[in-house]
Write a structure and sequence with these properties.
CATH architecture of the largest domain in chain A: 4-Layer Sandwich
Strand order of the largest sheet of chain A: 12-11-10-9-8-7-28
CATH superfamily of the largest domain in chain A: Ribonuclease Z/Hydroxyacylglutathione hydrolase-like
CATH class of the largest domain in chain A: Alpha Beta
Number of strands of chain A: 28
Number of helices of chain A: 21
Strand content of chain A: 15-25%
Bound molecules: zinc ion
Number of domains of chain A: 4
Oligomer: homodimer
Structural class of chain A: alpha/beta
Helix content of chain A: 25-40%
Distance between the termini of chain A: 35 Å
Chain lengths: ~650, ~650
């Protein structure tokens, strides 16, 4: 009998001592970080609302109770019972019964009404029906990503249970080492932006944090081949933790599966879906540009299959000596500051991922409130001494001015934007401005992946700023459903119509004018001197966006939606730049994030910024707060403890 | 055909173009770092003294020419021919013919006479006899270590050739990576003395430098299990480089073979022999103390079998992108400052190993003259702000005083000493003092491994200080052969006789009174108030030597050479401490080593010293010479380039 089996036997007897004699436990097993208890009497369990909580705190484990398959009523019967218990207004759109685990997945427009006050309706379902309910939201805007992911996971359910059980046993394996140390190795995004990747290493455990690409430098991938990472064999990595879906953090995660990795990816649920969307697009773009992508869509599916989603605030065992907790990072949907608690009080490390410190329209500001953090790994995108951003209020005022000026000229406003995050922020600005009459009502056309990304946002309103979440919960106030927003899904024909039609605003990818439908919009509208090309996001060195900002007006238009090879277009549009819509904290925000931590970390590693940004931020934090600060290079290892 | 085979074909054609048409090449292969050329016409090759040198410089390889086995005269015939060519005064003591390689190993009392002026006699042998001569010295003092090692290597000759060929092909393999970086990972001896071990890592190559134990803390071994070291598989280490034989640098090298390492160990020839001696003793001591040693003597033999000895100053390829050069370190016999040249001018790192900067009687001072060194990894044993040692002249005067005072009282002088290095230094002091009449002539008894270690010193006089080397070359002046020196090889009986006999000096291991025959000498002489126990070396915290220095006079005497369990002895001897015979540079020496480097390194890693020593030295070098200095912890990785 393995050590994990012995452990499970022990736990089972502890549970049996705690519960009433007439409740029968049929199995106790690990599935991922959770302890799953199978019982012939799920209704009795559900009857005592506090029993599971008591067990969880006694065993210091996350516990799920499921009915033993032998006790289940037939799905046909159970279906009706569920529909009877749940109020009709919940808007159940799908019911999916899994006899193997006794779970019923309830997709509903209003998940809160399926859950009930403090879980009362859920408990009622268990008591009445016997099946264990799991609730997901019906996307208020149809999202092919969300439905593809959900269908895929449904289809791969059996393999996924095997994975979870294997991972669960790994997490709860016996600790072997009596040494104590903590190390971080930098595999990327040091003194640069891009290819985020770190190894957190203890004598027991190796965790990869992020695994991104470097936009504009496809050859420069994280140093995965060194022995600290995959060089010692991909199976030596215990877990992957993903802070958010941006490709500079997620693009190369599927590659791990090509190299033989077979373990879990911990991230939030929205990050999982956005990651799938962005990775598949990454493959698409590579194909269109004639590059051979480093992996196939099959590996994207592997990544999704191996993802174990965690919610903000859940303290989760991911190894015998490591617990993680995700906290809102304020950067994009699902983005997480990740707190690692190592050993039993031995050491604490927080990885900021990318953060926005202040509240935005979309998100609450990044959380920096941890019981203990000895070392902070901090992004430094805007860590430079002059990287203070315009106030968002001023930015919004300026954007509205640009729109109004263009409108008065009779032109259209074209905004290149990233699909995830900034587009939704702008949608909120535009929706409010029209509602308040600050700008005229007119259509806002969303092209590229923006619509799909917006749909994903509305599927996970819990991850949005609290007042926005409340508005989304009331369908009639959901700003993303406003009439002005139009999804460009009719291709070139629709674009031509829009270009020939009434005044409007166009939000289109790519955000740095590096391909994508924005190229087509430039062809259609670029020659109109009354229209305005409005930049709202950072334009990196070497991108066409940056060159246009710098005054270029001869634009290559081949390679997207027709147009002969080598064609160019003379840009006659006005161009404007409106700063202040960044998803990143500015220099002040980064300092505030650190300054208001209590207690403050002893050490800060400044990463994810160009050389001068990390150096500036590192020396400022050192001088102002007297912490030990570092601006590491890639491929260095820091020892803590 | 593998890439190495293609390369060898190329080289063969280049050679054939360069040499006269009538010389036949039968094979060209790598054996370790050397290119070996087999020919039917070894005599023709030998005839042109400059041909090999021209080829070597053209091919940028070390070249050895050997006769094709088919051309060899029978050994019986060849033996007489060799004896005819070599002058009788060379004192040939053994001739060993190896038909597989066409080599004849000539062991002679005066190797220089076998070699001849600029190699003329060697060339004559090849021309007359056809066999390729290799010359070794007949130990002037019989050394069982040296003869065991030589016999063992003779016996394992075939496997050794396989190893060399495999290593040779590894060294000359194709470079695969187009990345360029250099990293050092610390596996031990950081902020501590003991368990020296470093990994030098490039995209191409991983090299382990030293692999020692931590005296007095047997559990604290180098962090070999991390993925940068053996965690990724022992076969991922390309080479081991050993700076010197002390156990804190060499003790765990045999363990590597237990873990599956099968590659080369580069070190000097005397270090190889001393390493064997000390490792076998290490196993002995562990057995006597009832500990299970981490490996067996079989692994010590593996280590010796895999050793590729290099001489000071030889620039040697040990990987496609790494050349090393050993330089005298002045610390113990064969100790080497090791210079690594990485890439084609990419980067240079020097590992000091342990060094003594000034000349001593035994050794020239450490070499610090390199064409380029960007990073220096520097020992810091005496790096503390107050670690200035007594001048050796003063120390010698004080030692002679102690001896004279004891002699006048009618007592004996007992000196605990390390077998390797300090004992030989003391022998030289005592021999000269007696010769000059500074102290009375009296027997000097050498107990423990001191005699054997001395024998190894006399086998390799090339590694000793130049004037000492010259004296050893003339048998009548060899100071180690002086009549006063007596090897205690009669056990307890002889010790009893010496104790009961005339006045004398005893040098005995262990150096810190931690077991070994010194315990027996304390039993025999410890109660005599006229005798003096004289400490000449550093006594570490927690050792009996240190406690005696601090005034303890109740000595446990069980566990060595009889004496009941729990017996104690009251020490009535005088105790004296004479500083200044250290094998390590003092603080001034360390600073001088760095200061006089030209050019000075950009970065210095201060290691191999306790916490305050490395910190003191690191900040002193930073302030005085404005270099970037570090006092790393174990398990950190530094990136250069
Ligand atoms: Zn199903
Ligand atoms: Zn990001
Ligand atoms: Zn990022
Ligand atoms: Zn040493
Ligand atoms: Zn040492």
């Amino acid at each position: 009998m393995s050590q994990v089996d012995t452990q499970l036997e022990d736990i089972r007897s502890q549970i049996e001592q705690e519960i009433p004699n007439d409740i029968t436990i049929t199995d106790v097993k690990y599935e991922g970080p959770e302890l799953v208890v199978y019982t012939r009497d799920p209704k009795r369990f559900a009857g005592d609302g506090d029993l599971i909580r008591r067990l969880a705190s006694q065993l210091r484990k996350r516990i799920t109770v499921r009915p033993d398959p032998s006790t289940l009523s037939p799905p046909s019967e159970a279906r009706q019972q569920v529909l009877d218990v749940v109020p009709e207004e919940a808007g159940i759109s799908d019911l999916d019964f899994h006899a193997d685990t006794g779970e019923v997945v309830i997709e509903a427009q209003k998940p809160g009404m399926v859950i009930g006050r403090r879980g009362s309706t859920l408990r009622e379902i268990t008591q009445e029906v016997g099946w264990t309910p799991e609730v997901v939201r019906t996307p208020p805007i149809e999202s092919s990503t969300v439905s593809n992911v959900r269908n895929f996971l449904k289809q791969e359910r059996e393999e996924r249970r095997d994975i979870l059980e294997r991972v669960g046993r790994q997490i709860h394996r016996e600790e072997l080492s009596d040494e104590e140390w903590v190390r971080i190795t930098t595999l990327g995004c040091c003194r640069e932006v891009g290819r985020a990747a770190f190894i957190l290493n203890t004598p027991e455990t190796r965790i990869l944090i992020d695994c991104g690409d470097k936009p504009g430098a496809e050859g420069e991938v994280p140093y995965l081949q060194v022995p600290e990472a995959l060089g010692a064999g991909a199976q030596n990595i215990d877990a992957v933790v993903l802070t958010h879906a941006h490709l500079d953090h997620s693009a190369l995660i599927p590659l791990l599966f090509k190299y033989g990795y077979d373990g879990p990816i911990y991230t939030t649920e929205p990050t999982r879906d956005l990651m799938g969307l962005l990775q598949l697009d990454y493959l698409d773009v590579a194909a269109k540009e004639g590059r051979t992508p480093p992996y196939e869509s099959a590996q994207v599916r592997e990544a999704i299959k191996h993802t174990i989603p965690l919610e903000y605030g859940d303290v989760t065992d991911i190894a015998p000596d490591v617990k993680i907790t995700f906290h809102n990072a304020g950067h994009i949907l699902g983005s997480a500051v990740t707190h690692f608690h190592i050993g039993d009080g031995l050491y604490n490390v927080a990885f900021s991922g990318d953060i926005h410190y202040d509240d935005t329209r979309l998100f609450n500001g990044a959380v920096n409130d941890f019981p203990r953090v000895e070392t902070l790994v901090l992004e430094s995108t805007y860590g430079g001494r002059n990287d203070y951003q315009t106030d968002q209020e001023d930015s919004e005022r300026r954007l509205k001015e640009v729109i109004n000026e263009t409108y008065e000229r009779g032109g259209k406003v074209v905004i290149p934007a990233f699909a995830v995050g900034r587009s939704q922020e702008l949608m909120l600005v535009l929706e409010e401005a029209m509602r308040n009459g600050d700008i005229p009502e007119m259509p806002v056309h969303l092209d590229g992946m923006i619509w799909e990304a917006t749909a994903i946002h509305t599927t996970y309103p819990e991850y949005l700023r609290d007042d926005l979440r409340d508005r989304i919960f009331h369908e009639d106030e959901n700003p993303f459903l406003a009439d002005q927003f139009n999804h460009i899904d009719g291709g070139e024909e629709e674009r031509q119509e829009v270009a020939d039609g009434e005044q409007c605003i166009v939000l289109s990818t790519s955000g740095m004018v590096e391909g994508g439908p924005i190229m087509s919009w430039l062809r259609h509208i670029g020659t109109d001197p009354d229209s305005t090309l409005t930049f709202v996001g950072y334009q990196a060195q070497g991108t066409l966006g940056r060159r246009i900002q710098n005054g270029w007006d001869e634009i290559p238009v081949d390679g997207w939606g027709g147009g002969g090879r080598g064609d160019t277009l003379t840009l006659n549009m006005e161009t404007e730049t409106v700063d202040g819509f960044s998803g990143h904290a500015d220099r002040q925000g980064l300092e505030n994030f650190v300054k208001t931590m209590n207690p403050r970390p002893e050490k800060v590693l400044c990463v994810h910024g160009d050389e001068s940004s990390v150096q500036d931020l590192s020396s400022a934090l050192y001088h102002d707060y007297n912490m030990r600060t570092f601006a590491p290079k890639n491929l260095e290892t820091f020892r803590f403890k």
